Amino acid sequence: MHKKWYDYLWIWSIIYFALGFFNILFAWLGMIDFLVPLLFAIVGGNKRFCNQFCGRGQLFRKIGAECKCSRNKPTPKWLSSKWFRYGFLAFFLAMFGNMVFQTYLVAAGASSLKETIKLFWTFRIPWGWTYSAGMVSDWIAQFSFGFYSLMLTSTLIGLIVMVLYKPRTWCTFCPMGTMTQGICKMKHH
Fold it and tell me: What DSSP assignment string belongs to 124-168?
C-alpha cells in the first residue's frame, strides 16, 4: 500500500506536545485541530478530517495497533452511546468555556496568570519553565496554558482507552467528532 502525505499526520501530534513542552505559546497551534474539522464539516458536509487527516487518531492507531500497545478489546457500547457522546461533549464544552472565562479574567485584570497545566481538569502541574513573563500579554499565555491542558488531558484519556480497548476508541466519543457529526447531520437534512 502506497502511503500518502496525510498518513504521516500522527507526527503532528507529537510535534505539538513537544513544542508546548518547551514553549507554552505553541499551544495556540492546537486551534488547527479545532477549526479544520469544523471547516470540513461546515463546508464539505463530511467527517473526512476525522477519518483521514486527524493526527491524534492516527497516533492512537500507530501506538495501539502497530506498536501493539492496545489490548484490542471491543469498545464498551456505552462509550459510543448517544447519551455518553453528547454528555462528554457538553462537559468538554463546559471545560473549554471555563478556560476561555479564565483567559477573560486574566485579560480583564481580575485574575493573574497561572503558569500551570491542569491534568484531568483537576491536578495542577507547575509548568512555568515553558514561558517567560512579558513575552506576550498575560491573557495570551493564560489561554496557552489552558488549551495545552485541554489537549494534553484529552490525549491522555485517548491513550488510556486505547490501551484498554481498541486503538481508536477515543474517536467514538471525541468531542470534535461528535460536533462534526452533528454539523453533517444538520447539513444533510
Answer: EEE-GGG--TTSS-HHHHHHHHHHHHHHHHHHHHHHHHHHHS-TT
d(CA 103, CA 101): 5
133: Cβ contacts below 8 Å, ≥ 6 apart:
113, 141
Domain segments of the chain: what residues?
5-187
Q: For residue range 84-129, what is the model confidence (pLDDT) as tens digits? A: 999 999 999 999 999 999 999 999 999 898 888 888 878 888 887 8
**What is the C-alpha to C-alpha distance for residues 170 and 161, in angstroms, rounded to an integer?**
6
Strands (E), the chain: 116-119, 123-126
pLDDT digits 0-9 by tens, 33-69 = 999 999 999 999 999 999 999 999 999 999 999 999 9
Exposure on the CB side of residue 116, measured as CA atoms within 13 A? 13
Question: What span, in angstroms and rounded, lies between the C-alpha atoms of 41 and 181?
Answer: 8
